[in-house]
Design a protein that fits this description.
Structural class: alpha/beta
Number of strands: 19
Radius of gyration: 27 Å
Number of helices: 16
Length: 440
């Protein structure tokens, strides 16, 4: 199930597109009056949906800052086609002349490329909404004030906004304003990504998981055989009850090691409850024998058991409960969550790789490519040559570096020959090297 969160007009468009795809039954929607309401609506849908899709970047950012959501979250980005449509309407309304405008919410690169494609100088008044540290404003009033000040100073003749509330406030105050709305194509692409993400999460949730319980001593090593038998029965009853609550099956390896076979979804639900500070199935109740617990997940029982043994080994050393996932990631009951991995790759590389959404080897290749360049004058074309990829991929890499706080836009390089202008980035090489090499 996909949860859709946005203003009523945007939700109507999403529902119409979903109906065209014959998948409207897969949606659960919640409408808000202002984007600040998005986190509460997200928490309301979190238990029902695998993915929450926000109709704009701002409500998505509010929800992401709130934390605590189990569902995967995403938003419908504004693409160049959305801006093209708005500019076309402006041209028709103004007799073929585009006024100077201020813009919010849309990525600066998208705005500049769209204007370059129609051979016009891009606007300079583009409001940055967020950086790697999160939102750069505390409310929509600041965005409205940004546009109003630019218009009052004469810097712009009109405003472009993606936000319905900002559009309404500016229009009521007499500021010429146009709203950039999503096209059906943009919504369709976002919905297809969300449906795919939901299917992946559902598939992952049905992976096999094993809870391995290692007893400190054999249950039968007691003087009185009747007391020993009662202890075994109490232990088995507690384990059967735990298996039932995990919707799993109880089994055994030997008199010291017991198994509960369940699903990854049950284990992730237990982790979510533990992170929220609630009683969780990560912990056994009613077992008075000293024991260690470890969880492992995998695509086969053998793989899940192998990961559970690794989790047990970690638990013996620390006294905590661990969960080992197929990709080597570890969750520990001591921290929520511990960012560990059972891999030989340096932790610094893993952290930066996760930020950039690259593999560890690709991250090292990227660092080597940047070493060959002037870090103050990096363009997509230059990075493409040094890294050995297409210019389109290089642009994505540079955007990822900027989003992670390792690069800033410093200008635009206009070639005297063919080809569109190139955004110039300054890469913070020292910061990148420290992040990668400090723990490498």
């Amino acid at each position: 199930m996909i949860g859709i969160i946005g203003p009523e007009d945007s939700i109507r468009l999403v529902q119409e597109v979903a109906e065209g795809e014959q998948r409207s039954a897969d949606l659960t929607v919640r409408a808000y009056g202002r984007p600040e309401e998005a986190p509460d609506l997200a928490r309301e849908l979190d238990e029902l949906c695998q993915v929450l899709l926000f109709t704009g970047r701002i409500p998505y950012a509010f929800a992401a800052a709130a934390d605590g959501l189990r569902a995967e979250i995403d938003f419908v980005p504004h693409a160049g086609i959305d801006l093209y449509r708005t500019l076309s309407r402006m041209l028709l309304a103004t007799g073929g002349r585009l006024p100077r405008v201020s813009v919010d919410t849309i990525e600066a690169d998208v705005v500049r490329e769209t204007y370059h494609d129609i051979e016009l100088a891009p606007p300079t008044e583009i409001l940055p909404i967020a950086d790697s540290s999160g939102l750069l404003f505390s409310g929509l009033d600041e965005i409205t004030a940004y546009h109003r000040e630019r218009y009052a100073s004469g810097a712009v003749e009109a405003c472009l906004t993606c936000l319905g509330a900002v559009h309404r406030d500016l229009r009521e105050s007499g500021v010429p304003v146009w709203r950039v709305e999503h096209t059906r194509a943009s919504v369709r692409d976002a919905l297809r990504r969300a449906w795919l993400a939901a299917e992946v999460r559902q598939s992952r949730g049905t992976q096999i998981a094993v809870m391995m319980i290692e007893l400190a001593e054999p249950a039968g090593r007691q003087g009185d055989p009747y007391q020993a038998e009662r202890a075994r029965l109490r232990l088995r009853e507690a384990l059967l009850e735990h298996a039932e609550r995990m919707r799993g099956r109880l089994g055994g390896i030997d008199d010291r090691t017991m198994l509960i076979t369940t699903t990854r979804g049950s284990v992730e639900s237990a982790i979510a409850r533990h992170q929220a500070g609630h009683a969780s199935l990560l912990t056994l109740r009613g077992v008075d024998v000293a024991h260690t617990v470890g969880f492992g997940t995998g695509t086969t029982i053998a793989a899940a058991e192998d990961n559970a043994r690794k989790a047990l080994a970690l638990g013996r050393a620390s006294g905590d409960t661990h969960v080992v996932f197929p990709d080597g990631e570890i969750y520990s009951s001591r921290e929520s969550p511990v960012k560990q991995r059972l891999r030989e790759t340096a932790p610094g590389v893993l952290r930066v790789s996760e930020q950039l959404r690259l593999g560890p080897l690709s991250t090292r290749r990227l660092l080597e490519a940047l070493h060959q360049m002037d870090p103050n004058q990096v363009t997509a074309r230059g990075l493409a040559d040094a890294y050995g990829v297409e210019a389109r991929s290089a642009r994505r890499l540079l955007k990822s570096l900027r989003a992670a706080g390792f690069a800033d836009e410093v200008g635009v390089h206009v070639s005297t020959g063919a080809g569109r202008p190139q955004t110039v980035y300054r890469v913070a090489m020292q910061r990148l090297i420290e992040a990668i090499g400090g723990a490498a």
